Amino acid sequence: MLKDYLYIAVLAFRDISHERILSFCMACSLGAIFTPIIILLGLQQGIIGNMLDTLESDPASRLVRPKFMSQSPIPLDTLEVIRQSGIAFIPSETSHLLLDVKGMHDSINAVPSSKNDPFFIQSNPIGVKDNNKWVVISEPLAQKLGKIKGDNITLLLRRTTNTNYPEEVPMDFRIVGVLNFELMPDVKMYIPVDVFNGIYHWRKGYEISALGLMGSRESNFQPEYDGVITGFSFKKPKSEDFRQMLAGRLPFSSMPEVYTKLTNSGESTDWRLWQTVNNTITMSDVQVLNNALLNYGYDPQIIPYIENIELDLHKSKVTKSWYISMLPENLSPRWSEGTKPILYVSSEDKHFSGEQQLLLKTGIKGNKVKIPVLLEVSDQVSPGFIVASHHFSGLLRTAERLGASYDTEQYKFSLSSQEQIRYFRVYSESIEELDALVKIVKGVGDDLGIHALKEPVSRLYEVQKIRTLSDYMKKIYFLIATISGISTVFAVSASVYATVQRRRKDLAYLNMLGVDKRTIIFFPFIKSMILISIGLVISFIAYWIFGVLASHWFVDLLGETASLTRLKIDYALSLIIVILSLGGITSLLAGSLVTRMDSQRYIHE
């Protein structure tokens, strides 16, 4: 039996050799059917693969960050959840710093980084070791400075002291890496996150001993405000003056609005409210605004502004709450550090006067802080409101934002944690895991009500768009492959049928010589599989030629190293197996005509 199969196989090879021209034409026709399938598969894998490779090689494609800087510090346990969800996590107290560089007229955007930062790794850093005074710069910045990797760069750290005296401290850093233009087209630098936060604190007046930076500010808890209320009695305000002031260096970016909620303000006074956007100001910022107004000939009344701070009465049987209101300094309670704060309530709430304990919700989680106070009655206060001194009102705003605790013995606020993280950058391990990381950050934002995290910034849309394009291309390829598969069935069936018809007398002789018909079926099967294999070889040669030509023609679009087509081995093997299986099944079905062949009739004819 085995000898018969071997004999039939030899006959199939000899028959192809005998009809070499006809067989070659048949193989070429099959190759013409297979070639578009292989080229389309290569184009699909190549185009989508190049897009995904471009995203994968760019660290920004795996980056997730808040939409804007959070006003309140993000809880540390929440940050730990986000940290564990990515491969690189860089927390910071602000999003960026504008630093001056020696030899540059304009300030440079500096962002925090670490040795795990993909941007740091992509720069191929050298000579980092334990040195924390390193910097990675972009190629445009390197060109402007005329610096290369390994050179030193001098940062000019500048701040204004409490006495309004400008201070400048030069600090040398070593350039350990340069990011090419494709990765970072902007003029930017990356510095270690501990150095970044240290410079941020130093600018606020604190001493940073690790960097050798001196400071004059002892307390890290200063009053903050949501804006400023300015009253104009003599010179009426002009919008043109305000526009010119906003064009200068003011902590405000929008025009002031008419303010009518100030009680007992006087009919002749025009009150305007200056508000910040997603930010707070300090008394030094208030003084800057006051000086600017004085320069324009105004003599304003200045009242710091506090918005939506609620204080609850700490009594088990009484439910009472007030909102902070602001009055001019001479009508507000006095402030004395280290003593119990005095607050004013309206005459309707005079039964609450005396020593009381108030509750303030602080931080993102709204932790309640107990504050012992002395309540007094004032006719200047409207019902439902409570008035504190300007200084203590600012401390309440700071405590509410930072999530502070209150010392009931020393009557002062203090930070619950020294880490005041309000911004971060986190990277997913791959673009496939970007979606999951974005969902985790969004979930944290929804749970805690942090608007900056509810819509994190990422390139998830670009990744999803490429995946959607890939899905559509797979559907198109499936349709074309299905049509080509049907063509293959007809082509192989026609070839087998023609083979059987041409060789029916020879096959009849074989049957008369004792070869079983089920064995004879093997003859058209082997011949078809050989022709299909030759057709596959021709199609893969055509695919290779197409790839070479496409790479040369589209070199400006793809670059010298990229290819328009890409066909992985597993895809190629799967395609070959499918084609051979389809051709083999078709050959056996078409070759079944041999079983209905009347050998005696064919020999008689």
Automatic annotation (TrEMBL):
<keyword id="KW-0472">Membrane</keyword>
<feature type="transmembrane region" description="Helical">
    <location>
        <begin position="521"/>
        <end position="546"/>
    </location>
</feature>
<dbReference type="InterPro" id="IPR051447">
    <property type="entry name" value="Lipoprotein-release_system"/>
</dbReference>
<keyword id="KW-1133">Transmembrane helix</keyword>
<protein>
    <submittedName>
        <fullName>Uncharacterized protein</fullName>
    </submittedName>
</protein>
<feature type="transmembrane region" description="Helical">
    <location>
        <begin position="571"/>
        <end position="594"/>
    </location>
</feature>
<dbReference type="GO" id="GO:0098797">
    <property type="term" value="C:plasma membrane protein complex"/>
</dbReference>
<feature type="transmembrane region" description="Helical">
    <location>
        <begin position="476"/>
        <end position="500"/>
    </location>
</feature>
<dbReference type="GO" id="GO:0044874">
    <property type="term" value="P:lipoprotein localization to outer membrane"/>
</dbReference>
<keyword id="KW-0812">Transmembrane</keyword>
<feature type="transmembrane region" description="Helical">
    <location>
        <begin position="21"/>
        <end position="43"/>
    </location>
</feature>
